[in-house]
Amino acid sequence: MIVVMGATGTIGRALLKRLIELGVPTRALSRTPEKLQMLMGERAESTVEVAAAEASDPESLRTAFTGANQLFLSLSNSPDQVELETAMIRIAAEAGIQHIVKISSPAYDEKAPVAVARWHQEIERTLLESGMKNTVLRPYAFMQNLLRFAPTIQTQHVFFGAMGETACNFIDCRDIADVAAEALTHPEKAGRVYTLTGSEVFSYSQIASKLSELLDRPITYINKDSEALRRDLMEYGNMPEWLASHVVEIQAMSVAIPEKPTDDVWRVLGREPRKLDAFLQEHSEKFR
């Protein structure tokens, strides 16, 4: 039995879809199981059990982990991340979970410190010390996060960042989910650290050019300094300060530490990662 923690998230939903396709017994956890059941519709059939659990409620986790031997761990980033995930790892060990697949972040680097990456580094250390078999997935920027630019692209034909002309790794969350599914269903692919990217890197200016061609109108990337971007994300994007700082920090990391694709997706899945062009085409109506 595989327990999926974070089943309503972008990666979690894609993982559930893949596990259903594979017919693998799965227990999907959510604070709002009714919402999850509605999202899944009739796809779950008899292979998925939907259960209520709360990351901050140890008793609900102990119940949810009973009878399972693997855990997919993916929580939304938050200032409580270290506390919640380290507690969850300990509860999983006590409950008899034998293997955890954890969604992490690119490795922490003091040359370009990212607070969230430091949190994940601490959680990874706890996971390693737990003695359980573990697979750590370190994805770079999600293609799905480009959708947050849609409102200003629709209304102003622009989007904003603080990356200059730096090229960035992007990956489709569905590829991350597919790698997780492989690690959960093929023991020989588990127990490793995978750094996950697409097969290409792109600057925001290049993405603006792709969108211009796709939408048949000029789309412009406007570069801002980090502090101006942070203020705008809080004021106009309604982001809490820690999240706005995270967005700015990961963009600063991309500028300070040149990014290049890895072949980890290919090595696990035996195919190329999904392409950015295909992703933008698939979601073109959201930018119009």
From TrEMBL:
This is NmrA-like domain-containing protein. It comes from the Bacteria. Residues 2-244 form the NmrA-like domain. Signal peptide: none annotated. CDD domains: TMR_SDR_a. Gene3D superfamilies: NAD(P)-binding Rossmann-like Domain, UDP-galactose 4-epimerase, domain 1.
